[in-house]
Design goal:
The protein has 135 residues and is mainly α. The chain is built from four helices and no strands.
């Protein structure tokens, strides 16, 4: 790995960490003050910025992951984002209406943590697999 590649990896990691930090701050601001219009607007702007950055990261990751099939690498991340929005929006509306904001935030946070843990385990397993030598 070259020095430039190492710098790009560090910069990418910092960008992702900053993006997640923005999203967490946006969620926290909204959770602490859901009826404050200014807080809701700032929270929405921060979430929008984080969302745009993360979809870009997913796009680049997908294309690199499926370098031999770039159409799959481009389409699959956005398909998963869309599926999450289709399922998540009505579920959030139901949870907020029946159980309240706190239960909804906790439920979605648990889903996010579970997804991250599953993704981390899959990545670890892939790293442990021997490289294929077939043509």
């Amino acid at each position: 790995m070259t020095r430039t590649e190492c710098r790009l990896i560090v910069a990418g990691t910092m960008l992702i960490g900053t993006t997640y930090g923005l999203a967490r701050f946006a969620y926290g601001l909204l959770a602490l003050s859901p009826s404050n219009l200014a807080a809701a607007l700032v929270s929405g702007a921060l979430f929008g910025a984080a969302y745009i950055m993360l979809t870009g990261v997913y796009l680049v990751w997908g294309i690199r992951r499926y370098a031999d099939r770039p159409a799959i690498g481009l389409g699959l991340p956005f398909l998963m984002i869309t599926a999450g929005q289709i399922v998540g929006s009505p579920l959030a509306g139901y949870l907020i209406g029946s159980r309240g904001y706190l239960v909804c935030f906790i439920a979605f946070a648990l889903i996010a943590v579970a997804t991250a843990l599953i993704g981390a385990r899959t990545t670890e397993r892939a790293a442990l697999q021997p490289a294929s030598t077939s043509p």
